[in-house]
Amino acid sequence: MKENIKRYMELPYEKIITKLPQSSGGGYIAEVPLLGALSTYAWGETETEALAALKEIMESNFETWISEGITIPEPAQPGDLNI
Question: What pLDDT is stored for residue 9 in this prediction?
């Protein structure tokens, strides 16, 4: 299973980082839209903290999804056909 998790972690998933206004508590939200914004997102006081937390959440989600037999969406790779 660890090999599968590593493979998914190496895929080029798009990550979006959003700076939150101070009125919302400040900090940053990092998310992976392809994996579901409600299930794969993290908060941090800095972009670096948010991305580090996101990495941990992704690994945990991949482990859970693999063990439960859930299909994990993969980002398009260069050369993939978009028909």
Answer: 96
Name residue 55's beta-bridge partners. none
CA separation for the pair 47, 27 (Å, rounded):
8
The secondary element (H helix, E strand) that includes residue 56 is helix 47-67
Task: Using the predicted structure, report yes or no on whether residue 25 has a pLDDT greater than 60.
Answer: yes
Name the residue among 77, 64, 58 with its Cα closest to residue 9.
58
In this structure, the strands spanning 41-44 and 16-19 are unpaired
| 1/63 Cα distance (integer angstroms) | 7
At residue 23, the pLDDT reads 95
CA pair distance 14, 73, nearest whole angstrom: 12
Does the pLDDT of residue 58 top 70, yes or no?
A: yes
Q: Which residues contact 57 (CB under 8 A, 6 or more apart)?
A: 40, 41, 42
